[in-house]
Amino acid sequence: MISFDDLEKNRDTGSLIAYLKDSSRLYLSEAGKLASICDQALPVKPSSFEKMKEILVEMSQLLSNGKIMSSIEQILSEAKMNASEKIGDAHFGVWKRATERGRKVFNSFIDLSAKIKNDNHILPMIRVTRQTSQLLKKSKEDFFKINLFLRHMYLMVITVAKGASIFPHCLKRNIVVSPKSKNALLFLENVAHTLSGFQNEFQTEFKNYVEAFKGGRIDHVEFTKGSLPAYEDLKDIFIQFLLLLSEMNYFVTGDLPEKDIEILAKAFVRESVDL
């Protein structure tokens, strides 16, 4: 990223503003792609999956809304700042770590995209079988895998929603927002509110799926043959997004990144599911 190289070299507010513009554009692009791939990874049935897919499609479309980026650019362009003002080492360190996370996300996307391009059977990653969940109560392996996959997906939705919530505060910590940018800032806050609503809706459908499976009311689902390597790439992207959120949260609140990651990691690696 050229703007980060300039930031590393100059370490001033002008370079930081250019960096924030470029990194915001890249983040929105990657987050939108991630939501789209998650949508394609799920089958249409059962109905809970269909509703999850609808949420992911709406989420991807929202993140692709050009008004988000134009609002960010307006806020940064109208900021009342001295472009030559230097930023401290600790401040720079946050953006250096965030850039490293972003590069890992980008590289993981390249790997995943190559797998999908070379094998048109990867998506969707899940298929419905003819057997019912009630007949497979003694074998929890497939349900555990799908449950964990959906948990990863849900945490991705949380990460993007909370990232959108934190970002306006992150801007305020970096720049002096001009009164002329009031409506642009309000728009970003409304986007964060909408994404938070998607998070709540996805959580509801995830719970509905688990309860329906436990009650034997839906068909059994399993990963398609050959999709697990791509899923590992997808899981790595989820984790890198979580780490990126942690850096943003650290900058705004001062909470140590490790604390956030430890909490989120526990949800990622749960090894038992009560049926």
General description of the model:
With 275 residues, this protein is mainly α. The chain has one domain. The protein is built from nine helices and two strands; from the N terminus they run αααααβααβαα. A two-stranded antiparallel sheet has the order 1-2. The longest helix is centred in the middle third of the chain and has 34 residues. The chain is elongated and about 65 Å long. The N and C termini lie far apart (47 Å). The C terminus is likely disordered.
Fill in the keyword field for this structure.
2 strands; about 75% helix; about 5% strand; single chain; disordered C terminus
C-alpha end-to-end distance: 47 Å
Tell me the overall shape.
elongated
What's the total count of β strands?
2
Sheet-strand content, in percent, reads under 5%
Task: Note poorly predicted spans.
Answer: 269-275
Q: Provide the succession of SSEs.
A: HHHHHEHHEHH
Give the integer mean of the pLDDT values: 85
Total number of distinct structural domains: 1
Q: Helix coverage percent of residues?
A: over 70%
Strand line-up of the largest beta sheet: 1-2
Q: Compute the CA-based radius of gyration.
A: 20 Å
Describe the secondary structure blueprint for this structure.
Blueprint: H1 2-10, H2 13-41, H3 47-63, H4 66-77, H5 89-118, E1 126-132, H6 141-174, H7 182-214, E2 219-223, H8 228-253, H9 257-268
Antiparallel strand pairs: 1-2
Helix pairs in contact: 1-2, 2-3, 2-4, 2-6, 3-7, 4-7, 5-8, 6-7, 6-8, 8-9
